[in-house]
Write a structure and sequence with these properties.
single chain; six-stranded mixed sheet; 14-stranded antiparallel sheet; mainly beta; 2 helices
Length: about 750
């Protein structure tokens, strides 16, 4: 017989040879032993001690990031519980493979800090895509917990920002924007006015630049071959479409194996071929034969070019309707380059023509893009025959997976709908292939920039005179719009709030502008203007002084005076307005590259004040705010040092943030904050925190890279690296144990 005991007291009902404790609580901690009653004997086991630790929880989870090729990204976690903690960062592909397992990361060229709370990734490789990351943290009791899965999107500096222009589901309905519906749109063309023409569900539709959709020919869901006007005409699986300068449309009517023409009055005629009669015969009009024609393109002289998919040839139709074979040999597949019938294709689909008369063809069965000169010379422009994939690169090093639609812009750049990869590819005139939208192997309908956008079997593609790209996203049943976007982000503003007075209580903001040009900044020193926001004890009469690195006064302001120039600048940077008669200070300064400080002092007394610096230059200026800093007396409660900063743009930005106290003594600052704690928030969400920076070698290397002064390795200063998406943030410096003193908060843009 057995009797289990807890801290020497019998446990009721615990008389088996095994004791199981479910849902253990803190009251269950202590010593456990068991008494064994034998035949006239009593044996007591050695006690076993049960300890119950604090459950591990993530205080800070890693956040998604989007960066450009060649950039770095940083991911950070923080946990509570019983340490010490063991960190293990892992990754896996976005498109899972069997078995769906995570792979441990190791420090090297691409990753640093794989066994710490902070993982640095980069420089990002020369390719687009998405990496999934997670951190497994194990506590002192050996219990592992995984962080959330975070995504790192990598894009080229130029990519497409994709939105949905029209369509949302299945059947053709005339309407506007998302209320209109398509069924498997295939071909797409754009005219000089920006109108789109789409083939879908046995019809041809027009989509205006604002997304108004109308059916101009055919009847949804009803196949046939009849010529006629508008809905009286019939099509049977219409595919490629082209538009000429007179707004006539030309359609490859696939299953009918004919080429159709649609006038601006919606009159449909058969230009070449005979409905239902397949073949490869050259000839005039209905004498000619096609076999599942796919793509059409038209030149300035009115000659039409057709990818005759089933025949593996490229056909030409003159304005008089004379059909000839320009390249390839009917019914003979291959990949050979050559002139005319010596060249070989394998299921050509898309076709486009440039201003010089050169044709570009997607050779689907070969996974390549071909070029044909006006005399019929065929060469392979990109991809490797018979080898599919998604690799970017130059010419034959690039890979495609079912390239279908193709279009060319005025500068000679090609855009390809890579259906099998669910991506949009760009080919420059030097044959450099890049992925500018979509994520290879990942399907979806998400709008976004670069690899954050998703497609589902994109097919037709067109580009207008402005370089805007339009895609028939076939299996999403929508038309997508892609605007070429240059990826950029920058530090755009700094604000520091604290007690301001005179002497050591001067509120100081520092900033550095990059070399290469001038930078216009708006500086504001606000006291009375804080009152409407419920701030009490404000500085009654702030004064603002701007210095260069040599200590020379560049500008000063006491009362801003309500000037038109300043009022306009406030609105431009979305700064809250100030009363024209307030005692707040403000000034505009145009500064060459260099280091500057702005001092906010009191005309008399002390009070709470806000010091702000804004980048006023619009767009993506080459001269940037490279760093921002604020120095002030750190108190307790509401009187800690709070610095707000903003990242603007369309991509994440890695920043170095430091909260410095002890190292300031090296520069003659007295009364420094002995042990600063640094916390970074977005709204009320804690993103990261640090007490002692610990001499971290990565942090030290980045500090040297951005020309920040070195911190003593054993100092109590705080520092962290973060990769932040565009948005507004605050960095807060307080004293550990409610200590007080002078501190400096710094934010550096990491190249």
């Amino acid at each position: 017989m057995y009797q289990w005991r807890h801290n020497g007291q019998p446990i009721s009902g615990a008389t088996a040879d095994t004791l199981t404790i479910t849902n253990a609580q803190l009251d269950d901690t202590g010593a456990y032993d068991v008494i064994l009653y034998g035949f006239g004997t009593v044996t007591i086991s050695t006690p076993a001690v049960l300890s119950i630790g604090q459950p591990m929880q993530f205080v800070v989870q890693p956040r998604d990031a989007s960066i450009a090729v060649g950039s770095d990204a940083v991911f950070h976690v923080e946990v509570t519980g019983d340490g010490p903690f063991v960190y293990r960062w892992q990754s896996r592909p976005v498109v899972p493979v069997y078995p769906d397992t995570w792979t441990d990361l190791f420090d090297g060229t691409s990753y640093r800090g794989t066994t710490t709370a902070t993982l640095a990734v980069g420089p990002a490789p020369f390719s687009t895509g998405c990496i999934l990351l997670s951190c497994e943290v194990t506590d002192a009791h050996g219990s592992p917990v995984n962080s959330r899965t975070t995504q790192l999107f990598i894009n080229y500096p130029e990519c497409l920002t994709v939105t949905t222009l029209a369509g949302d589901s299945y059947w053709n309905v005339e309407s506007t924007e998302s209320a209109a519906q398509f069924r498997s749109p295939r071909g797409i063309a754009v005219d000089a006015a920006g109108n789109l023409y789409v083939t879908a569900n046995c019809t041809v539709c027009r989509v205006t630049p604002v997304g108004v959709v109308t059916t101009i020919a055919g009847l949804a869901g009803v196949s046939g071959s009849a010529d006629g006007t508008g809905t009286a005409a019939r099509f049977y699986d219409p595919k490629g479409i082209a538009v000429d300068a007179a707004s006539n449309l030309y359609v490859a009517d696939g299953t009918n194996s004919t080429i159709r023409k649609i006038t601006p009055a919606s009159v449909v005629t058969t230009l070449a071929g005979l409905a239902g009669n397949l073949g490869s015969t050259d000839g005039i009009g209905s004498v000619a034969r096609f076999c599942n024609p796919e793509g059409v393109a038209i030149d300035a002289a009115g000659n039409l070019y057709v990818t005759d998919n089933g025949n593996c040839t490229i056909r030409k139709i003159t304005p008089d309707g004379v059909v000839t074979t320009l390249a390839g040999l009917a019914q003979v597949k291959g990949s050979a380059d050559g002139i005319g019938s010596a060249a070989r294709f394998s299921g050509p689909v898309g076709i486009s023509i440039d201003a010089a008369g050169d044709l570009y063809v997607t050779d689907v069965g070969n996974y390549t893009v071909r070029m044909i000169t006006p005399v019929g010379l065929v060469t392979t422009l990109a991809g490797l025959a018979g080898t599919l994939g998604n690799a970017d690169g130059t010419s034959s090093t690039a890979r495609f997976n079912i390239p279908v639609g193709i279009t060319v812009d005025a500068a000679g750049n090609l855009y390809v709908a890579d259906e099998g990869n669910h991506t949009i590819r760009k080919i420059t005139p030097t044959s450099m292939v890049t992925t500018i939208a979509g994520l290879a192997g990942s399907t979806g309908s998400t709008d976004g920039t670069g690899s954050m956008a998703q497609f589902n079997d994109p097919f037709g593609i067109a580009v207008d005179a402005t370089g805007t790209v339009f895609v028939a996203d076939t299996d999403n049943n929508v038309i997508r719009k892609g605007v070429l976007t240059t990826l950029t982000s920058r530090l755009s503003s700094l604000s520091a709030r604290g007690l301001a007075g005179t002497g050591d209580q001067t509120l100081i903001a520092g900033f550095a502008t990059s070399e290469g040009g001038s930078k216009q900044l708006l500086l504001r020193g606000i006291g009375p203007g804080l009152t409407p926001f419920g701030v009490s004890g404000v500085l009654a009469d702030p004064a603002l002084t701007l210095f260069n690195a040599a200590g020379t006064v560049l500008q000063q302001n006491n009362d801003w005076g309500g000037t038109t120039a300043l009022t306009t600048a406030f609105a431009q940077v979305w700064a809250f307005p100030l009363s024209p008669n307030s005692k707040d200070a403000a000034l505009l300064a145009t500064l060459p590259g260099g280091v500057y400080t702005a001092h906010l002092t009191a005309q008399s007394g002390t009070g709470v004040a806000l010091l702000e610096a804004y980048d006023v230059d619009p767009g993506t200026p080459t001269t940037r705010l490279a760093s921002l800093s604020a120095r002030d007396q750190v108190g307790t409660g509401d009187n800690i040092l709070i610095a707000g900063f903003a990242v603007t743009g369309n991509i994440s930005r890695t920043v170095l943030i430091r909260g410095i106290g002890p190292t300031l003594a090296r520069y003659g600052v007295s009364g420094v904050l002995a042990n600063p704690q640094l916390q970074v928030f977005q709204g009320n969400t804690l993103l990261a925190q640090n007490d002692d920076w610990g001499g971290d070698t990565t942090l030290a290397a980045v500090a040297a890279q951005v020309n920040a002064f070195a911190l003593d390795a054993n100092s109590k200063d705080a520092a962290m690296l973060l990769t932040l998406p565009p948005g507004a943030y605050t960095a807060q410096v307080s004293g550990v144990g409610n200590t007080t003193g002078v501190a400096l908060v710094e934010i550096y843009e990491v190249p």
